[in-house]
Write a structure and sequence with these properties.
This protein is an alpha+beta fold. It contains 8 helices and 13 strands. It has helices spanning 2-28, 37-42, 47-116, 120-126, 165-185, 191-205, 305-315, 320-335; strands at residues 130-135, 143-150, 153-161, 217-228, 231-239, 243-247, 250-254, 261-262, 274-279, 283-287, 295-296, 301-302, 344-350. A hairpin with a 2-residue loop joins strand 2 and strand 3. Helix 5 (165-185) crosses helix 6. The longest helix has 70 residues, at 47-116. It is elongated and about 115 Å long.
Amino acid sequence: MHSSKLFSRTICILFVFFQVQMVTFAQSQTQLPHTSWTEIFKGSGDEGIVCYKEKHRNFFFMTFGLVALLAAVTLNQYKIKRRSADMLSEKNRTIEEKNKDIVDSINYAKRIQQAILPEASNIATLLPESFIYYQPKDIVSGDFYWIAEREGRTIAVVADSTGHGVPGAFMSMLGSAFLNEIVLEKGVTEPALILNHLRDKIIRALKQGDSSESRDGIDMTIISIQKKEAKFDLQFAGANNPLWIFRQTGLTEIKGDKQPVGVRTGSQVPFTNHRLELEAGDLIYLFSDGFADQFGGENGKKFRYKPLQKLISDMSMESLLEQKNILSQTLLQWKGNLEQVDDILVMGIRLKA
């Protein structure tokens, strides 16, 4: 549309210029009152008049030729721009169609990923007082959670795969499948052993080694809970992630091992298994690093872990549903107009008598 207007305006300007030249030329004939237009173009017997008329005739043809040349150049440029615009429009349509196909495929992958996650009814049965705050950065997520029961113990997992989006989603589905095999098929319920087995399977599946370029892995928190009379036997193991427990005495952090579920530099070290005795009413929190690493606030800084600990301590007396709402509102207020930087996952559990 812009090129069309430019072409029209250029032709108008050239036409006006040509008209001005014609008027100037016509006015010049007043110097020769007995000279007709025919004489101007054909000449006459008077040499002086012929010379004068030839100059004006030549000037007329030069002006006309210049106008015609400029018009031709302008028309050619217009055609080139129009052709380029058409090609660009066609490319944009092709890109839009391909983007739509890609987004449709990712949305379908989202449905597959959601189908792999534990069902709400299963979570309500195994962990009746709990919440899961799950906020993927993209359509699909590298963070995932996994809950199951085996041999009288409830195993809960919060995991953070390398990356987010589609690459992270592949890792999450791989991790979920291996957890099903290790816990449900082989019957392993000790968190440290689960991590050891899972690491071996990840390394073999991704063909990782000392010379491998692949350093993909999973940061993970695993707990195993079994009720024993009025007490609860809790086992925990972590790969780069800690566990927070809130009791009447306050919040306690149990650190995980500083290594991922995947290849690491140097020799592989077995994961550490922690064992604690808890009581009814105690709160357990498992999480990825997404919430603490979210930028926001007045200065656009990370939320960080200490403010998150304070937030959890302040809301510990609230219901689990209200705690989830508080986390959601706090994140929205903190983030403001900034982009979410990572997948976010927080799981809260209150032990029920």
